């Protein structure tokens, strides 16, 4: 793994801090030229570093994704280890609903940048985690397919299109989990 140069790390931190304009003005306010000016770096540096607005969106999502992964890998139950698999699936999905809704605009931009944009990275980590828990809870199920089915309603474009809130998403996912996994 290549180590990031100190000046590059400093520029990255300044860029991500400047990109907080999303919190103030929404995703429409994420103009690359404005982020570059606010961070004191050239537009070329910004594009080389992140590629485009969706790359910058992925970087902005990264910190909360790392915290989320730490919670389900090593945090306290029921999201973290120590609870029965079905309870962990439910807690994980509830936490993912909250996380998705908290960063919906950024996820929408990041997940719709191209055909495979939703998959890879975080999705793969979520899918692997669910697959393991589902296999433990219900060995006769196709755990990988079931994990995809449980993650599908949380695609940012579907959540946006349907306008579904946290309570309805959680109820719907609970119904699916209750029907699929023994307690």
Automatic annotation (TrEMBL):
The keyword Glycoprotein does not apply. The keyword Calcium does not apply. It holds the Pfam family TetR_N. InterPro entries: Homeodomain-like_sf, HTH-type_TetR-like_transc_reg, HTH_TetR. Keywords: DNA-binding. GO terms for molecular function: DNA-binding transcription factor activity; transcription cis-regulatory region binding. Residues 8-68 form the HTH tetR-type domain. Residues 31-50 bind DNA. This is TetR family transcriptional regulator.
């Amino acid at each position: 793994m290549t180590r990031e140069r100190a000046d590059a790390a400093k520029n990255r931190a300044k860029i991500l801090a400047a990109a907080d304009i999303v919190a103030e003005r929404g995703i429409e306010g994420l103009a690359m030229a404005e982020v570059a000016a606010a961070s004191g770096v050239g537009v070329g540096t910004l594009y080389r570093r992140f590629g485009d607005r969706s790359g910058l969106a992925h970087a902005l999502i990264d910190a909360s994704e790392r915290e989320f992964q730490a919670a389900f890998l090593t945090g306290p139950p029921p999201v973290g280890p120590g609870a029965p698999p079905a309870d962990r699936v439910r807690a994980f999905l509830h936490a993912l609903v909250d996380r998705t809704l908290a960063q919906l605009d950024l996820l929408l931009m990041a997940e719709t940048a191209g055909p495979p944009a939703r998959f890879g990275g975080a999705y793969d980590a979520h899918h692997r985690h669910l697959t393991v828990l589902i296999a433990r809870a219900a060995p006769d199920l196709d755990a990988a397919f079931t994990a995809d089915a449980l993650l599908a309603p949380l695609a940012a474009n579907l959540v946006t299109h349907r306008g579904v809130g946290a309570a309805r998403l959680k109820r719907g996912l609970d119904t699916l989990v209750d029907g699929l996994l023994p307690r």
